[in-house]
Amino acid sequence: MFELLGIPPQALFGQLLLGLINGSFYAILSLGLAIIFGLLNIINFTHGAQYMMGAFAAWMLLNYLGIPYWGALIVAPIVVGAVGIVLERLLISRLYHLDHLYGLLLTFGLALIATGVFRNFYGISGLPYGMPSQLSGGQNLGFMFMPNYRGWVIVASLVVCFATWFIIERTRLGAYLRAATENPTMVGAFGINVPRLITLTYGFGVGLAAFAGVLAAPIYNVNPNMGADLIIVVFAVVVIGGMGSILGSIVTGFGLGLIEGLTRVFYPEGSAVVIFVIMAIVLLVKPAGLFGRTV
Amino acid sequence: MIEALAPEGSAGVTGKPLLKVADLHGWYGESHVLHGVDLEVAAGEVVTLLGRNGAGKTTTLKAVMGILPKRRGSIVFDGRETISLPSRAIARAGIALCPEERAIFSSLSVEENLMLPPQVLPGGLSREQIFELFPNLAERLSSQGTKLSGGEQQMLAIARILRTGAKLLLLDEPTEGLAPVIVQHIGRTISRLKQEGFTIVLVEQNFRFAASVADRHYVVEQGRVVDMIHNDELDENIDKLHAYLGV
Ligand SMILES: Nc1ncnc2c1ncn2[C@@H]1O[C@H](COP(=O)(O)OP(=O)(O)OP(=O)(O)O)[C@@H](O)[C@H]1O
Ligand SMILES: [Mg+2]
């Protein structure tokens, strides 16, 4: 059996796979953050909580209504996205004329409240969520064993990221969104309802987070803290990629997941901090981020 | 709401004006910039706003378009009071703005910039008619909007509001900083648009250009309209106008 730099291939590919899985979540979540920041100019600190709520929505749909995974994949993002839309209309929209900082404080507070509520009712030990039976088992790829569900997560997130990119970069609705991100006043002066566009964009970004939450539910336990842990890393990903770039978020998300995986193989002690080290370097060298436009 | 707008060959407001601005006040934050603007534009007319830098010409257009947040007074368009409508409703009533800074979107291609404003009323120009007016644009459709030359960006900024069916076009210094040959092209275009029945309010510094396309001129000074001159009486009034404009 051959070895690579003294590392058995199973371990290497296993970590790369794990890196891709993590990268899938980084990509979907940072994509949502980037879209919301672009148009609303707020840093949506509630994003991690909304990811957590997606996972809980899947759990509740299954346990209270008997709706299985596949249904939850569609219903949970819609439900959590709708909650996001209510939040935007009721609270966030009142802050657009103020500094970023107010939106950040509001969404941070909302995240604490959401996490606290779920902790209160469901505890912190986590709830199990079963894998859909169609995706149990795995494939032997020769060089490694690939669990079906993990493969599915990677494919699903690639498809969702690409579809989002396509909507934003290649459709008329996306052109409205890009234009309104640049100059909302002018887009309004063309007769387009910019406030509604903003609300729907927020709902869509939140829906993406919830979708990631449903994908995560069978892998990790459904836990009120699952978002808080992840979102810190995702913010670093967003800083590295550059706030406002769609493709940048996707590429950076998957890329950093892989780098994290490789670090776990070659220098395990560094795996928890490697993304933050990269963030510090990027901030020094290119403060707008790898794909960011300097403002 | 949608009246047939017969193109009017003759100058001057006869009958009901398409746009009637009365005692219009406008502010940027606390700073009071418009101090009671009055003007009228008949359907099919081309009217200019002349005046020194900072007189309030751009601000007047912004107020009519509804993008000046703080405005008071009366702006009646097509028989309907618009002073408290949001800009998107004003756009849908049939007014379109080509702003001074052109506002071409850098994240949109030329094609996307052109197709961005939705159709608000029937009767806008077709793509073919637009490319006939601005042949350059047809060749640059896939370029990034802001990669165009200044003249092409100006043409794009005008072109995109011709598709929408808007009846009243507000053009803010469309010739600013452009080469003479492009200025001529834009002058011919404005005359063509007048023939097509568009009503136009044009802000201009280049007063020779203004004289070549307009029916009447309003002189704006310190946030007010202080004079109105018919284009065919321009020669008699040229000294007065020079004094207003400080040339
Ligand atoms: N965004 C703004 N904030 C504050 N004051 C402004 C703003 N824009 C314009 N002003 C002020 O309002 C007044 C009128 O400006 P406006 O742009 O309407 O003038 P203008 O007649 O279009 O001038 P120009 O010929 O230079 O374009 C000026 O005193 C200007 O300094
Ligand atoms: Mg001006």
UniProtKB/TrEMBL annotation, chain A:
The chain crosses the membrane at residues 12-37, 73-92, 104-129, 149-168, 200-220, 232-259, 266-285. InterPro entries: ABC_transp_permease (IPR001851), BCAA_transport_permease (IPR052157). Pfam families: BPD_transp_2. It is a multi-pass membrane protein. Coiled coil: none annotated. It comes from the Bacteria. Keywords: Amino-acid transport, Cell membrane, Membrane, Transmembrane, Transmembrane helix, Transport. Belongs to the binding-protein-dependent transport system permease family. LivHM subfamily. This is Branched-chain amino acid ABC transporter permease.
